[in-house]
């Protein structure tokens, strides 16, 4: 049933749970192998995803079984059905949300009780169940002491205590709390784990009725949130609905920040050291995220995310590069370190926490913030003076810094380059600032911004275009390609029928596709790291979007369908795909991939509406 070691289970085998404060990953055999408490970026309490001894909580049949799973409607409540020769059992898992509404407003997760809920019910015959709760706080460093309490056990050790509700007696020792019990048809067991810090008295164990009530409330809360947002009838409806839900699941409730992914150090290539912590909020995601959320009818969520970004960066000084990422509470210091005691997924060391990329200069962030503001202009009900001053300062920074080299959107750890995408986004920053000048209270600076915008355009057109390649290449004077340039059609930099734009999209289509047809971020050897990574799911959706925006929606739909097949059985997407095996790689689930899916679907829909004969586009003229 499981051909891989405990810390090497295929990434696609995992399901996501969320209470909008943190997330858990559950395997198809009923093991929670990743859970950080109390926040997405807190140290893992259950970390078997990255090391066999770093903690897990499993509930599964003792006999051989096969399993199938699905979410309960439009929620992140998971049902896994185990079938054995003797009977069938259904395991329902959730992170408790609490009520969905507060004073008439939907505030999903605002009252989350910091509890993990697990209910198993025998629906046919009889099934013997193996139960093992083995928390290992601080990324596996701490082995708690277990003490019986009324209705369960208390685990103490490290900065938190855990109260496990159990309706059956448990054997507890140094290794954890375990039991085996047989369920007969109609019989169910309700478990829960509540978390309390050391300053709190541990809460009492819940009754089975209280666990069931919390589970029902969680299902209703997710469904209420989904029903309060308009659906997407027609093509890709299920994928789009799930992608919107994923973005909400990865959005930190107290601040509105969206984590790039809820995991750290799932590698971009097995054993290559390309392992990064993605449990933070990237500025680069801002415009893409805002477009996706707004198009999906989640305008309030888009505004919250934008406001988080502007508030987190509000200390910004125009003469210095804008920080590219922040902690989900607005933290700036994201210093990176390695956890040498963890083996890593499939022994892919090192496991990293923190992310050194926070120190990198990346010029594209100016355009991404101002483009997000432009997309939300109808929903920002009067920017306050600090926000206006900050955004105007961003435009000034783009005007002052665009000629500098940087690390680019992909956070290369090699030498800085004059990346075309970075220059393009400086152009976007200045273009949106000119259009937005009156709202920013900076009409007197619009002329200077427009002049700088024209200089950036000239540089991109003369130094970024390579006539021998027939494309805007990765960097000025270069001949390698960068999939990030696929964002050019959506930027408004050139008309959609400009032959250089069409030729660039086609060149990337030819040169950056792998044998499976998926798109790599860039050509091997251009990022300053050893080895080669997989293909990047977001980039395949970018190709689909670019093809649609340049008038070729049928080809766009083919690329979209190919990228969509990268989702697992629950509709969840990882960061990358192994070019040799087709297996998932990278942190999971990846917000950027789901954002790409949403924006590509929108572009294909709009292109088909505007073009009754979409493939009748005449061949491009020679540049």
UniProtKB/TrEMBL annotation:
Residues 236-601 form the GH15-like domain. GO terms for molecular function: trehalase activity. One of its GO terms (biological process) is trehalose catabolic process. This is Glucoamylase (Glucan-1,4-alpha-glucosidase), GH15 family. PANTHER family: TREHALASE (PTHR31616). Residues 7-167 form the Trehalase-like N-terminal domain. The lineage of its organism: Bacteria, Bacillati, Actinomycetota, Actinomycetes, Glycomycetales. Gene3D superfamilies: 1.50.10.10. It comes from the Bacteria. It comes from Glycomyces sambucus. It holds the Pfam family TREH_N.
């Amino acid at each position: 049933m499981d051909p891989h070691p405990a810390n090497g289970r295929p990434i696609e085998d995992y399901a996501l749970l969320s209470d909008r404060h943190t997330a858990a990953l559950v395997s198809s055999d009923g093991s929670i192998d990743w859970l950080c408490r109390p926040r997405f970026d807190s140290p893992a309490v259950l970390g078997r995803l990255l090391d066999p001894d770093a903690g897990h909580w499993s509930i599964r049949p003792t006999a051989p079984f096969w399993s199938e799973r699905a979410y309960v409607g439009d929620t992140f409540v998971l049902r896994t059905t185990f079938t054995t020769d003797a009977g069938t059992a259904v395991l329902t898992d959730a992170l408790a949300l609490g009520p969905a509404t507060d004073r008439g407003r939907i505030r999903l997760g605002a009252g989350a009780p910091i509890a993990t809920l697990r209910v198993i019910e025998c629906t046919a015959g009889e099934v013997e169940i193996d139960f093992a709760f083995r928390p290992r706080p601080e990324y596996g460093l701490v082995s708690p002491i277990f003490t019986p309490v009324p209705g369960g056990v208390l685990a103490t050790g490290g900065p938190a205590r855990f109260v496990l509700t159990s309706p059956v007696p448990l054997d507890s020792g140094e290794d954890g709390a375990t039991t085996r019990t047989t369920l007969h048809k109609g019989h169910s067991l309700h478990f829960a784990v509540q978390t309390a810090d050391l300053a709190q008295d541990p809460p009492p164990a819940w009754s089975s009725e209280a666990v069931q009530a919390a589970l029902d409330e969680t299902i209703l809360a997710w469904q209420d949130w989904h029903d309060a947002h308009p659906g997407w009838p027609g093509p890709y409806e299920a994928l789009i609905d799930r992608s919107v839900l994923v973005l909400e699941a990865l959005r930190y409730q107290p601040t509105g920040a969206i984590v790039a992914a809820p995991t750290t150090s799932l590698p971009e290539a097995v054993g290559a050291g390309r392992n990064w912590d993605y449990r933070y909020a990237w500025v680069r995601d801002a415009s893409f995220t805002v477009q996706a959320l707004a198009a999906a009818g989640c305008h309030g969520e888009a505004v919250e995310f934008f406001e988080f970004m502007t508030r987190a960066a509000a200390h910004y000084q125009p003469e210095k590069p804008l920080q590219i990422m922040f902690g989900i509470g607005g933290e700036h210091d994201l210093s990176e370190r390695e956890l040498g005691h963890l083996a890593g997924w499939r022994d892919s060391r090192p496991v990293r926490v923190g992310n050194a990329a926070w120190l990198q200069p990346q010029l594209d962030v100016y355009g991404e913030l101002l483009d997000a503001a432009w997309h939300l202009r109808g929903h920002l009900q009067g920017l306050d003076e600090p926000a206006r001053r900050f955004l105007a300062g961003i435009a000034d920074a783009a005007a002052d810094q665009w000629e500098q080299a940087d690390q680019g959107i992909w956070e290369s750890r090699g030498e800085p380059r004059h990346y075309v995408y970075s220059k393009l986004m400086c152009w976007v920053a200045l273009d949106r600032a000119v259009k937005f000048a009156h709202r920013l209270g900076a009409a007197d600076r619009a002329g200077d911004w427009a002049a700088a915008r024209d200089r950036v355009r000239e540089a991109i057109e003369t130094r970024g275009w390579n006539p021998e390649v027939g494309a805007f290449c990765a960097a000025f004077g270069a001949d390698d390609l960068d999939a990030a340039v696929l964002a050019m059609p959506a930027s408004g930099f050139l008309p959609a029928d400009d032959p250089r734009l069409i030729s660039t999209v086609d060149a990337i289509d030819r040169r950056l596709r792998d044998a499976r047809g998926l798109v790599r971020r860039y050509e091997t050897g251009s990022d300053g790291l050893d080895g080669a990574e997989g293909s990047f799911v977001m980039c395949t959706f970018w190709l689909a979007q670019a093809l649609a925006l340049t008038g070729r929606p049928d080809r766009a739909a083919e690329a979209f369908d190919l990228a969509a097949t990268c989702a697992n059985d629950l509709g969840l997407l990882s960061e990358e795909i192994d070019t040799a095996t087709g297996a998932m790689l990278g942190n999971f689930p990846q917000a950027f991939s789901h954002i790409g899916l949403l924006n590509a679907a929108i572009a294909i829909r709009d292109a088909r509406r505007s073009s009754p004969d979409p493939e009748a586009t005449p061949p491009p003229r020679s540049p």
